[in-house]
Specification:
Largest sheet: 7 strands, mixed
Number of domains: 1
Strand content: 15-25%
Oligomer: single chain
Order of helices and strands: EEHEEHHEHEHEHHHHHEEEHEH
CATH topology: Rossmann fold
Shape: globular
CATH architecture: 3-Layer(aba) Sandwich
Helix content: 25-40%
Length: 288
C-alpha cells in the first residue's frame, strides 16, 4: 500500500511524533494547513478557521528538533478500519524507536486502537477533539436536509446557488458511512479499548465552541437556533458543551492521565495557541 506521507527527520535522540488527521481531512491539515481541505476535500480549511494562525504542533515540534510524520488517508471519509490498517502499516515501517501519537477527531480513536492492540514503542498519546464516547452529529443529517430553505433566507440571493451546493456537500459528509461509525452505539465505538493503557501517558483535549460547520459564512447553529430551542440541541452543538462535532464530555478519554477543554471549535482546536503550547509542554516534559 503506497501512502502519501509527509516526513521531516529530526534529532535521532528524540521520539518520532506521528500526527493522525480526522475524517474528511488529509496530511496537509497538520503539515501544510494553508493548502488543506476538509469535509472530504470539499472546503478549504481556512474557510473554517478565519483569523487563526495556520500552524499546528507539527510545525512547533519540528522546530524543536523532533522527527514528525503525517499521512493522507486514502479514504478519509470511509470506514475507520481502512484508516487503521494504514496506521498499522505506518507503525510497521516507521516505529523503530520511541513514538508519540497525536490524533485529531477520529485520528485520536485510531491512536487509541493502536495502543490498545500494540503499545510497543509508543511513549504517549494525545487526542484532540476525539469522540471517545461517540458523537450524535450523524443523526442530525436528517434534520439538516429541510434547512436548505432556511439557509437561503439568511444569505444573499446572488450566493444561493453556491449555498445549495455547500449544503449538499455538508449533508453528504454528515451522512457518510465513516461518520455513522462515530455514533455512540456503533460497533466501532463499542469495540474501542475501554481505558487508556497503563503506563503510557494519555492526554485528551476537548472544545466548547460549537460554531464549526459554516455555509457561506453562516454557522449551522444560525439555522438550527431558529427552529429548535437550545435545550433540544445535542451537546455537540451547545455553547460551552461541544465543539460542533464532539461534545466536551465525549472528548474525555476514559482513564486519561490528563484532560483540558478550550473554547475553540472542532476544526480550530489543533490551531489554538493555548492548545499548541500545552502540547509542546506535554511532549517536551516526556522527553527532557
Amino acid at each position: 500500500m503506497e501512502l502519501n506521507i509527509v516526513f521531516h527527520k529530526g534529532d535521532p535522540g528524540k521520539p518520532l511524533v506521528v500526527f493522525i488527521h480526522g475524517m474528511g481531512m488529509d496530511a496537509n491539515f497538520w503539515a501544510n494547513p494553508a493548502d488543506a481541505r476538509i469535509l472530504g476535500g470539499k472546503y478549504p480549511l481556512r474557510v473554517m478557521i478565519p483569523g487563526i494562525e495556520m500552524k499546528t504542533s507539527f510545525d512547533d515540534l519540528r522546530s524543536l528538533g523532533f522527527s514528525v510524520l503525517a499521512w493522507s488517508q486514502k479514504r478519509p471519509a470511509g470506514e475507520a478500519m481502512l484508516a487503521f490498517e494504514e496506521l498499522q502499516k505506518i507503525a510497521d515501517a516507521h516505529f523503530s524507536g520511541p513514538v508519540i501519537l497525536i490524533g485529531h477527531s477520529r485520528g485520536g480513536l485510531l491512536a487509541r486502537m493502536l495502543v490498545g492492540r500494540n503499545a510497543d514503542n509508543v511513549k504517549a498519546v494525545i487526542t484532540i477533539g476525539s469522540p471517545h464516547q461517540g458523537s450524535t452529529i450523524a443523526r442530525w443529517a436528517e434534520y439538516l436536509s429541510p434547512l436548505a430553505s432556511t439557509l437561503k433566507k439568511i444569505v444573499d440571493a446572488g450566493t444561493q446557488k453556491k449555498t445549495n451546493s455547500a449544503i449538499q456537500k455538508v449533508l453528504g459528509f454528515l451522512s457518510s458511512s465513516g461518520l455513522k461509525e462515530m455514533l455512540p452505539d456503533s460497533d466501532f465505538i463499542s469495540a474501542l479499548p475501554q481505558v487508556a493503557v497503563k503506563g503510557i501517558p494519555a492526554i485528551s483535549i476537548g472544545g466548547t465552541d460549537p460554531s464549526f460547520i459554516r455555509i457561506d459564512g453562516k454557522t449551522i447553529l444560525t439555522a438550527l437556533s431558529g427552529i429548535f430551542p437550545n435545550s433540544m440541541l445535542p451537546d455537540e452543538l451547545r455553547d460551552g458543551m461541544g465543539d460542533g462535532m464532539v461534545s466536551a464530555l465525549s472528548a474525555v478519554w476514559p482513564g486519561a492521565s490528563g484532560h483540558r477543554n478550550y473554547y475553540a471549535h472542532h476544526g480550530a482546536l489543533p490551531f489554538h495557541k493555548d492548545v499548541r503550547e500545552y502540547i509542546v509542554k506535554v511532549v517536551t516534559s516526556l522527553t527532557d
